[in-house]
Structures are given as C-alpha cells and as structure tokens.
Amino acid sequence: MEIVIAIIIIVIVAILIWYISVSNKLNRALVKIDEANSGIDVALTKRYDVLTKMMDVVKAYAKHEKEVLFEVVQLRSNMTMEEKKTENEKMNHNFDQIKLLAENYPELRSNENYNTLQLAISDVEEHLQAARRMYNSNVSILNQALVTFPTSIVANSKGITKREFFEAEEKKREDVKIDL
Amino acid sequence: MDNNQNINEISLQYLENIRQEIQREKRTTKVIGFSISIVSMLLLKNIVALMIGFTITLAFETCFTYKKVNDYKIQYKKLVVVDVFKRLFTNITYIPEKGISYNEIKSTNMVDMGNRFYSNDYLSATYNNIHFETSDVNIEEEHTDSEGHTHTVTLFRGQWYIFDFNKMFKSNIEVCSKYFTANKAKGLFSSSNLHKIELEDVDFNNNFVAYSDNDLEAFYILTPSLIQRIKDLKNRINAQIILCFVDNKLHLGVNTGKDLFEPKISEPVNAEKYGNETMQSTRNIINFINDLQLDNDLFRREV
Questions:
Q1: What residues of B are in contact with residue A31 (Cβ under 8 Å)?
Q2: Whole-number Å distance between alpha carbons of B81 and B222
Q3: Complex-level ipTM
C-alpha cells in the first residue's frame, strides 16, 4: 500500500515538474514574441520617419506636380498584426510614389540629402526584415509547440492560442534593391 | 624591371645557397649521430642504444639548425610572398615573425585559448577598400596527467582573419560549425553571456550553432543571403569555421589544421612554384571577401 502511495506521489510530482517546465517554456516563447513584436514596432516607426523625411524632400522638388498621392500612415501603440501590415503596405505605396517622382527629377537623385535618406531606408528595411524574421521564427516555435501533444494540453489550460505571422510582401522585399 | 629581376635572381640564388648549406649541416649531423648510435649498439649489444641514439641525433639536428631554418623561411617569405601580396592587395604590412595577438583573439571570447599560443605570418592589407588582417594561429592545451605524462591537445590550428564588416552593430554574434570543440560559447557552464539562437534556416541550424547577446541584431546581421553564403563558404573550404561579429568587425577562424606560406627546406628554391602556391592560398582571402560580399558598402554608413 505504501509503495502504491509513494508511486502516486512520485507520478504527481513528476507531472507537476513537467507542467511547470512546459509552462515556463511557453511563457518564454510568449515573451520572445512580444520582444520581437516591439522590434517590428521600432522598425516600422523608423521606416515611417525616414519615409516622411523623404516625402518632404521630394515634395520640395515636385511642387508643381498636380497631385502626389501619398497615403496617410498612422502608427499607434497596440496595433494588431493586420493593422501593422496595412500601415506597412501604405508605406510601400508611398515609397513607390517617391521612386516614381525621383525618376522624373534627375536633380533629386543627385541631391545629397535624398541619397543619404535612400541609404537610411535600405538600412531601415534591413532592420524591419530582421524584426519580421525574428518575430516569425518565434511565432513558428510557439505554434509548433501548440500543436504538439502533450504540450498542447498545457497551452490549452493557460489559454495560449496560435499567433499570426507577419508576412513579407514581395513588393517590400524589392525595396532594398535600390539603384544608387 | 630588369634590375628588379636580377636582384630577385641573385636573392633566390643566395637563398638556395643557404638552403644547401643547411641541408649539408643536417646531413653531417645525421651521419655523425647515426654512426655513433650504430657503434654504441655494437659495443653495448643492445638495440635500445640504437633507438636512443637515433632520437638524440634527430633532436640535436633540429635544435642545431632551427634558427637557420627559421631565418631561411623568413627571408624566402619576404622575397616571394610579399611579391604575391603586392599583386593582389594595397596598403600591405607583412611581418612573418609576428601574428595576430593573443589578446585580440581572446577578446572575441570565441575559442578556448588553452595554455600555448603561437601566431605568425601577420598580414594587414586592403582589398576593394576592405581592410583586413590575417595570420596563422595555433592554440594548444598542454596538461600533465596523474602519472606525469604530458598531453597536448590542439584546440585551433589554421588561419585567423579580421575583416571590416559592412554593417554597424553593437552586439556580439557568433556562428560556429557544429562539433567545433574549442568553441567557448557552448556549454552549460560557459562564462559567455551569449545565448543560442535559432535561425529560420533548418540546414544552417543543422550545420552551425549561432549565439548572440541580442537576438534582433543577430537577425539583422545574419540575413538569409549571408546565411546562404556562410553555408556555401563552409562547403567550399571543407574545414571547420567560426565567425564572430564584434566591434563592427568580422573575425573568421578557419580550422584548416595547417600553416600557410611555409616553404619546405627539403625542396630547392623555386620562386614560381612557391609563388603559385602562395597565390592559391592568398586567393582565399579574396574569396572570403567576395563570398561574404564584405565589399558591399550599402550599409556601412551609420544612419
């Protein structure tokens, strides 16, 4: 009888240790995702700042253009991944517009300020790509854990659900290929 | 040009004379030593005396000619190797007797530094505006067991390169071939503050281990294209490699298990053959710069 009780206690302790360990692992994954998410926010803000500066430079050259269609980008805290994607796509559109205008104004392409900003946008793009890859890598680790038995039991008990990836659009990837 | 050629020919002939003199001394030492060993064996009627005699002769020969062989190699290198470097690089400083310092390599915290360190064949030069330094490096751990036997373990033997890197960064990032035992960042009890990171490339994760103290910067430095280029580099050179991104520089250790640019004392002076071998080894530096696209300066400016 004592042996049975001992075995039951050992099993319960083992399950408890396993549960805590898996729970900590999932918590760490969530923290990493949050960190990566804030990395995306920082990169998006940097991209927004550089693009705004570029738009100012371009507007100074293209005063007499009837309409320069720049999208209004609104970044705020606690945006969902879908909202981030939407605002990022608007920035892609704005960058395309800038490139289109630059093609019509050769003197703009020789402007030192504009060239510096082009270098800056390339660097910002690299940071955004890095943040996106890191976020997706962490989301992938978490999502894999969530569909793996018995980790899924712990995840369900803690109410952890799958996270959405921050997908890169083809257009955005092309941004780094700038002809200087 | 003709004048230079004559000087070179005279220098090469001078080197060949030194080499022949060293070879003569080696032969004489061996003949005398081996004769004494044979006579000792015959007198003592013991084969062990012969073995001991041979060993002492070889050790004596090495000690007796060591300095001369070393001087000969240095002169040979200064004459032929520098000429190859001049054809490929600019701003050259080549010091055969010197190497990348112990402290410089230790500061990367990449490899276990053991208790014996040698480096030589220091080269500092520029290629396509990329400044680099390189030297042969040998790191060993010598220890004595409880029975008094001394064991030497080679932790790293090969070439160490330090390149200017084309991105600005503040963290330390390390990439190391899997199973590279001298890697210092690994292990539960490592003093390094780096932690392991998983990149999205499964093949890369199977062949390399990456460590960093800042995940985001690690992803910034290790772009998918750089990851692919590191894999290609590893496949091409077929040796364990370790890369460390620190202080806006890339340290690359290639564990080839051999020294470069070492002329053989047993072979006659042949500037063309030695020059070609040197050229082949030196081209690796250019290949590293090209493979890793270190001359892409798109990101070099701090923004």
A1: none
A2: 34
A3: 0.74
